[in-house]
Amino acid sequence: MNITNEHLLKESSLHSKQITNDTLGEGKLIEGDTLSVLSKVDDDLINVGITSPPYNKQEKQKGWLVKNVVYDVYKDVVPEPEYQENQVNVLDEIFRVTAPGGSFFYNHKIRWDRGNMYHPMDWLRKTMWTVKQEIIWDRMIAGNIRGWRFWQVEERIYWLYKPIDNQLIGKELRSCDAKMTSIWRGVPER
Ligand SMILES: C[S@@+](CC[C@H](N)C(=O)[O-])C[C@H]1O[C@@H](n2cnc3c(N)ncnc32)[C@H](O)[C@@H]1O
Fold it and tell me: pLDDT grade, residue 27 (50/70/90)?
């Protein structure tokens, strides 16, 4: 989609709580703070969503292989407990706006800080979502090439599911879709 002013909605121009199907029309990009924008979205509105959140990477220097990514208006440096609490709050808001039977794909990775390992499941279990599957994304390239441990070439994609009437399993996939396997291989865009 070509993004023009006609497609762009500024969070500040939205007054009432409700972003509904009518507000979104045939495709809109809403610019604003995640939690604040989500609070204006109606319940059970979205069927499927996807995000690559900030990782709280502390903006450390990378090795020679991959450039360090620094965001424009956001500093990816917060105390880890605060970061995880924010992720839970965002994911629970996304759960609220997702329709029962809907899914959300959440991309993340295992991180280490001073020898402590942080696994995305540490906070995903604190959300309202049912974790349907952990997909391994084999990026085939390491972001950090220091030798403290084996090169980490994978990220994770969590397929999160909002059950209908508490039926956690949900609908069976078509066999052609189930054959996709739980390892997705592809080099990220650079
Ligand atoms: C891992 S990046 C994802 C980038 C995006 N998927 C892309 O391909 O360009 C995380 C993004 O979340 C944005 N971000 C961080 N905190 C935010 C917040 N509170 N509200 C809105 N965006 C935020 C950052 O600026 C950054 O662009």
Answer: confident
- Same domain for 69 and 34: no
Ligand 1 geometric centre to CA of 76 (Å): 9
Interatomic CA distance for residues 189 and 167, integer angstroms: 37
The atom number, within ligand 1, closest to the CA of 86 reads: 19
35-58 burial: b if 16+ Cβ within 10 Å, else e: eebbebbbeebbeeeeeeebbbbe
Q: Does ligand 1 have an atom closer than 6 angstroms to the CB of 167?
A: no
Domain containing residue 23: 1-42
- Going from the Cα of 124 to the center of ligand 1, the distance in angstroms, rounded, reads 19
**What is the C-alpha to C-alpha distance for residues 39 and 43, in angstroms, rounded to an integer?**
10
Domain count, the chain: 2
| Terminal-to-terminal C-alpha distance of the chain | 21
pLDDT in tens, 172-184: 999 999 999 999 9
- For 44-80, the pLDDT digits (tens) are 999 999 999 999 987 665 544 455 666 666 677 899 9
Q: Both tokens of residue 93? A: 């808001």
- pLDDT score at 61: 52
Residue whose CA is at the smallest distance from ligand 1 atom 5: 52
